Amino acid sequence: MTAIQHFTQKRVVPRLPVDSTALREACGAFATGVTVITTGAPGDSAGTTVNSFTSVSLEPPLVLFCLHRDSRLAPVLRRSGGFVVNFLTHRQQELAWAFAGRETARLEDAPHERTAEGLPILQEALGFLVCRLVDEYGGGDHSIVVGEVLEVGAHRRDEEPLVFFRGSMHVLEELVQQELAGEDLG
């Protein structure tokens, strides 16, 4: 004999759409490092500030970052087939803001060197990852860009990183001291 199961239907309450301002504020409570992604050959180079960077895998060595679908970096990235993740020091806040705007800084004006493939590496960065573009995935109003790490370098092991928290850039040590002192950061 088969048992009869009775299911009670629950009333589904529709959710309201998430407010983008509230989402930005909530995500701003998560402190991240600040990077500038650079790409392109001489005469066709670009950079943009990104804090949506993470490692994905050690075997194979993969990383990702998110890039707005209308970013000026996207076509240069696709042409070059590679990019560099530059981890910024606390001294590079001005550079980070310069590459964050719609009217970006010119890469030629930032001190950099080139990889064997011609990709730009910012000279004053804490460290860098040279990557080959592996794939792009849709992610709403952004693309999720995946790269295979081909080269790893560190310039400045003795510098503090630049961090992004509550809509502002901070020096990590100062951020910790402000939090310990109970200062309002946002």
Please tell me about this protein's structure.
30% of the residues are buried. The chain is globular, with a radius of gyration of 21 Å. Strand 11 and strand 12 (168-171) form a beta hairpin. It is an alpha+beta fold and 186 residues long. The strands form 3 sheets. It has a 7-stranded antiparallel sheet with strand order 3-2-6-9-10-5-4. Strands 1-11-12 form a 3-stranded antiparallel sheet. Strands 7-8 form a two-stranded antiparallel sheet. The protein has helices at 20-27, 73-80, 93-100, 172-180, and strands at 32-33, 35-41, 44-50, 53-57, 62-68, 82-87, 112-114, 120-122, 127-139, 142-154, 162-165, 168-171. It contains 4 helices and 12 strands.
Order of helices and strands: HEEEEEHEHEEEEEEH
The total of helices stands at 4
Judging from the principal axes of the Cα atoms, what is the shape? Answer: globular
Task: Supply Rg.
Answer: 21 Å
Our measurement of the CA-to-CA distance between the termini, rounded to an integer number of angstroms, reads: 65 Å
Oligomeric state of the chains in view = single chain
Task: List the SSEs and their pairings.
Layout: H1 20-27, E1 32-33, E2 35-41, E3 44-50, E4 53-57, E5 62-68, H2 73-80, E6 82-87, H3 93-100, E7 112-114, E8 120-122, E9 127-139, E10 142-154, E11 162-165, E12 168-171, H4 172-180
Antiparallel strand pairs: 1-11, 2-3, 2-6, 4-5, 5-10, 6-9, 7-8, 9-10, 11-12
List keywords for this structure.
single chain; 186 residues; alpha+beta; 7-stranded antiparallel β-sheet; 4 helices; 18% helix
